[in-house]
Protein: LacI family transcriptional regulator
Organism: Pullulanibacillus camelliae
Amino acid sequence: MVTIKDVAKRANVAVSTASYALNGVKKVSEETRRKVLQAAEELNYRKNGFAADLKKSKTQTIALILSDLSGPFYSELIRGVQDIAVDHGYDLIACNSLGGQNSTAAKFLTERRVDGCIILAHNITNEMIEKSASPAFPIVLLDRQLERAHTVPIIVDNKNGGYKATTFLIQKGHNNIAFIGGPADSHDGQMRFEGYLEALQEHHIDFQSRWKVTGNFTREGGELAAKIIAAQDERPTAIFVANDEMALGAMEYFQKVGIRVPEDISIIGFDNILESKYTAPKLTTVQHPKYEMGALASHVIFQLLDGEETEKSFTLHTELIMRETVIDIMTKLRG
Amino acid sequence: MVTIKDVAKRANVAVSTASYALNGVKKVSEETRRKVLQAAEELNYRKNGFAADLKKSKTQTIALILSDLSGPFYSELIRGVQDIAVDHGYDLIACNSLGGQNSTAAKFLTERRVDGCIILAHNITNEMIEKSASPAFPIVLLDRQLERAHTVPIIVDNKNGGYKATTFLIQKGHNNIAFIGGPADSHDGQMRFEGYLEALQEHHIDFQSRWKVTGNFTREGGELAAKIIAAQDERPTAIFVANDEMALGAMEYFQKVGIRVPEDISIIGFDNILESKYTAPKLTTVQHPKYEMGALASHVIFQLLDGEETEKSFTLHTELIMRETVIDIMTKLRG
DNA sequence: CTGTTAGCGCATTCAT
DNA sequence: ATGAATGCGCTAACAG
């Protein structure tokens, strides 16, 4: 391994001089600078970033920890984070938390390999987060309500989103509305469900537990849930599905078995993933501010890093996206 | 910042003992181990991973460099890489190469921050790659034909894939076949086109340049391309689209303007992204071995790292996925 | 089983 | 403008 020492030797200068030359510090004459650069080139010298970071005790990079690096949902979030990070001259690396305590993510959290991090992964424990956060290592939490020193949560108003979705259905004349939810440990899913409940109550519609079915936020989960709903003797006229992926799965199932969307059953999703715009019919859904969330998270990290004051927590709002999978019940009856 | 020294002091042991205890080396008595651990706990000690890496000159992580962290295509690839990496006890971090020479990716390439890397990004120059590769830093190149020492390319047989797709269309009786390609600098796209050409020639079908239109591999590009094709007075009976995303866009356009797929026009795509299975009608396409590619890349990295011999390069094959968007021209004429 | 010590590769202060 | 010397936090060889 060729080090800066080797370069210095070859260029007949001291290490410090080599370092200056390599890093563009202007203390060194053009003459020697070129000598050093050439020596480095000849030896194919690569600097060891860690050593540099160790010395400077600054990594100039932030990490984004996701429970799963793949999935359509994350694309926009990542873009948001990235855009702001590069603005600040920081690097972004993404890693996943599969494996929990032993994951790559854990290493970044506990070993000071980055200057700060943004977490959207529910298999990282609150305890780990609390222990890791410090003035020099701020953490932004996405979709997790945990206020601590040096830790700021950004959540989206899932409950209100669920409320809006359900209210919209009710306004369209539906009062037999099913709910396809997420896994029990999903805080998001739970909040969306509460919004659903609230809308129901407000309109004096009884909640029917047989019409609450739980999926796992995947396309397949949506199919299965749809199947369960379709199998019952009385069928709801509309479904609020807790995320778009499941909604797409449900739509597919209904199409397969000849139940028409929206003529026979209306569907509203949640998230507004890219894909939802391209289905036939186009999915009516609730906009989740993914990009904004990423960008804001990035912003907050840098404020924290700069020692500025920030809000204790942030809440982002949702928005109804009306497309083609919800039909007015009157239209339906006439049809 | 609390260091291992502080911990040692508080526990009344030497640094080495603290290090052993912290790292679970069994040279130390249970008694002292607990003492050290407790001291660490009390001081909220976090180890500096860099310092450790520096000392060990091993990072135990590999990087995956993508030109864009988002996009449906990458999900499966990432899974493949990841699965193998964790098998080997390695961590995986993903970073993107947006920004070219100054990107995060570049840092990882040139600053030895990881033990090896897998690159699927065409804005990283060959030169950079050549300079970075070394026995201690193997590089696996995806979809880029560049054989060098310590650098092994994995490519998919795009040409043959294009050939298969086109031949399939011809066998179904089509001889007016348009091609929607990718950007000019896409090697993949170019190869797929060559396969198309070869199939045409083999069946003595003249290539018509007006039926070659170029998109940018996005959904919108596909829509636009479809529009251009539809606008011509004579219309092809089939289209080979160089990737699924564009095929989806094209299908959407055709549906919008009342051109039926496949009754009026057959479409075959390329990649077999998850989504293509969920369209109506379901997209006929060519399978791109994404997961396998990732897994293989990972494998190769570890072989290289272990100093084993590997093939100079790998070629992965494609497979026709027959679904619903290609119709036999006879059926069509009868219809 | 525990302590002393020598670097890992680099940036940087203080002389010169 | 340049060089010698120091130490960042950690691991591991060696000595006790």
Chain A is about 45% helix and 15% strand.
